[in-house]
Design a protein that fits this description.
Helix content is 24%, strand content 27%. The protein is built from 10 helices and 23 strands. The radius of gyration is 20 Å and the shape is globular.
């Protein structure tokens, strides 16, 4: 199962069946603690919580061997929060079930994708609405299957969910999406989103706050933004079958004294900014103390070029030295090199994923980890074209892989995109 907690909301996805999910706010906690049943119904999900928290924790502790994947989201100091439950309904995430013993080596799969945009004023969402197929109208079936099958899938959410606020004055591109479109995150199988980017605040503070509330209502964890600096800088922890993965996210972009996308402060909402890197390094160190594996998801780089800028080259070694095991980058809207800082892989830019109408090479990146660390890292070629994103195959797959080899002097990519250092 998956249990997520963020800002008082939790959500679970089961590995034993098709899926099961629940979301509860602080108002529902009393129901859980008194053993009352809670029903959360929607177009895809109906869940019955039948045990008290204490009973369910005891049941899990006494369970020998386990019969499914077990993922728990933790948000503070690595402490787990969890609850057993049952479900006979299908969840919108569509995660594949994992039968007992299917994963004997204790491996955990982590998938990362780049920029998405659900603003219906722009081509991607307008095309999806016209097709009338939901997320299947924007992402090919084989790619969706891979996203949903991951133990943890993380994506860059490059806009706020709101119908309020005013666009930032003087900003060339301002984005927002209807709050109901956030359900597409569940439909694509997202387990975590980064809000550390230069569009999360496009319609003012209220737009970011609405996003946080929307994601909380859906039980979708976020990292890299918050109602104050403590929340924005806080690592998120996901535990998969006893292996704890820590995530931190931050943004350098709008490198100016007074950026349009406000950084969070002790008393105001905003994103976690890292142009001054000390705060990010502190969060990485905190995550390292509470995790078996740490990922930094950084919004950086220069748009439209595969050349790395000096901020990336300066900060990547510092982030690696602070204790991360993997660095993932976003913002340039195109692919950038894969490199290494010592033994730490750096995927400098994932590129667009489902963002605009341009035909662009893109990817997903899949990391497989176990108790000993990173087992494999794979660059999986994809293509954004015709307001859809699909896995690349045949000559297109090889072309994209060769491009990545050409721009990545520090890394080798084999014929299936598996990455190793030179």
């Amino acid at each position: 199962m998956v249990i997520r907690k963020q800002g008082g909301v939790m959500k679970r996805k089961s590995r034993k069946g098709k899926a099961d999910g629940f979301a509860y706010t602080a108002a529902a906690v009393a129901l859980l603690l008194t053993g009352c049943s809670l029903v959360s119904s929607g177009s895809h999900t109906e869940v019955y919580l039948e045990q008290t928290l204490a009973q369910s924790q005891a049941a899990e502790e006494n369970q020998s061997g386990g019969d499914g994947r077990h993922v728990i989201l933790n948000t503070e100091n690595g402490q787990e929060s969890g609850k057993e439950g049952t479900s006979d309904g299908a969840g919108s995430q569509g995660k594949e079930s994992l039968a007992p013993g299917e994963n004997p080596d204790g491996e955990v799969s982590l998938v990362f994708a780049g920029d998405i945009l659900f603003d219906e004023s722009y081509a991607i969402m307008a095309s999806m609405n016209q097709r009338g197929k939901g997320i299947e109208g924007g992402i090919s079936g084989d790619l969706l299957e891979r996203l949903r099958a991951a133990d943890i899938f993380m994506v860059n959410n490059e806009f706020p969910y709101t119908d309020r606020g005013t666009p930032t004055a003087g900003k060339t591109f301002t984005f927002r999406a209807k709050p109901e479109y956030a359900s597409y995150l569940n439909d694509m199988g997202a387990d975590l989103v980064s809000l550390a980017n230069n569009h999360a605040y496009d319609y003012g503070e209220i737009s970011l706050l609405d996003s946080l509330d929307t994601l909380n209502r859906l039980g979708i964890p976020y990292v890299g933004a918050g109602r104050n600096l403590e929340e924005a800088s806080r690592p998120v922890y996901l535990t998969v079958d006893g292996l704890t993965i820590g995530f931190v996210a931050a943004t350098q972009i709008e490198r100016m004294p007074s950026p349009d996308t406000k950084g969070a402060t002790e008393t105001s909402a905003g994103v976690f900014r890292c142009l001054e890197i000390d705060g990010l390094l502190e969060s990485v160190r905190e995550a390292k103390e509470n995790s078996d594996f740490v990922i930094a998801f950084v919004h950086w780089g220069t748009e439209g070029t595969d050349e790395l800028d000096h901020w990336q080259l300066e900060q990547a070694p510092q982030i690696a030295e602070a204790g991360v095991d993997l660095i993932i980058g976003a913002h340039p809207h195109v692919l950038q090199p894969v490199g290494y800082c010592g033994s730490v892989p750096v995927v400098y830019s994932l590129g667009n994923f489902l963002f605009n109408s341009r035909t662009l090479d893109t990817c997903i990146v899949e990391a497989v980890v176990d108790e000993n660390g990173l087992k494999s890292l794979q660059f999986v070629p994809a293509l954004q074209s015709g307001c859809r994103v699909s896995l690349a195959g045949g000559t297109e797959k090889e072309r994209i892989l060769q491009y990545m080899r050409d721009i990545s002097p520090e890394a080798s990519l084999d014929e299936e995109g598996y990455i190793s250092g030179k």
